[in-house]
Amino acid sequence: MSIDEQHILKLIYAIDEVIRGLTNDSPKNHVLSSSSREQLTKTAEKLAIAARDPEENLFSTIFVAPANRDMFKQMYDFLGHAVYTMPRFLESTQHRNPVDYNNSAFQHGHHVKVGFWEYLKEDPERAKVFNSGMRSMATIGGSSRRVGPYPFDRELEAESIEEADVAIVDVGGGRGQALEAIKMEFPALKGRMVLQDLPEVIEDAKLCGLPNFVEPMAVSFFESQPVKGKQSRPLFITLSFTSHPFLQHFALHSRVAISQPWGTLGALIYHFRRIFHDWSDDVSRRILCNTIKAMSLRSRILIADTIVPNIGAPRHVALQDINMMSFGGMERTLTQWNELLDSANLKIKRVWAESFLVVTFKLTGVKP
Fold this sequence. Notes:
This protein has 16 helices and 12 strands. By secondary structure, it is an alpha/beta fold. Helix 1 (3-23) packs antiparallel against helix 2 and helix 4 (66-78) crosses helix 9 (124-133).
């Protein structure tokens, strides 16, 4: 048994003892109602079973996977300090919506001047933990489908894509976990798969090992998209989103004038998975515009991200919104997605409902 597993089991035993101490019949514990004591007793029994046989309990096995441990480590060690200081930070800004990446609760909580991404870059170990955490199953999607509801096979086949064509560019794709999941679920997909991220992230991905079908490319999404398509007339753009329980697919329409000639076919799909929730509307719009300029007639953009319900948002979705808010990002309601996309001259056309949001922009080539 590894030292990590030993620590996990010790923690489970400790929690078990605390719960049992709260559920005995001592008068000092009468502050708990009988129903509360009963529920805590059941929880203690489950933890005890987990400690004896971790494979019988999902909770006890979650933290055995290094990516899951790293995911929770970044949530609590990196973002936790920012979230804890959020009340004081908001009070200092008269409770304005915190969308300034360079002046956020993150800087106040960590007592640093740099933003979240620069903070990771300063320490290779931090960056390693973050990149590993992004591979966590908790970040990939639901248990039944790892890539969400978007029909990659049907959509790609409809375009008669060839092996030499670029099928998917995963923008800001980390260690390539999304591309791996897509290929695993749709093994017959044709075309090349390009992984884009910052140079240090791509280097980390290479060191950890990338499948042969993934082509790494070091580039920032704040720069011009290098995988460009050819188009020299005004175009209509169609955008689609997809969702899981709290994420969705929609399609947008817009007309944009593009005058630059490009020499390649570009990519069929430019894929953004959990990118825009890191950024404010102003920054997200810049990223979108860089991509739109690179698209060809057949291109589309997929955005895999959360749609927050207007009311009754699940607790984990609300918590994620607070996490993002702590360094200038945000989870968005459908109205907020509309506002962002409208600002980039895009309109929603369709929503695929499941539990993970994927957005598609498509240049249809219709003349004005």
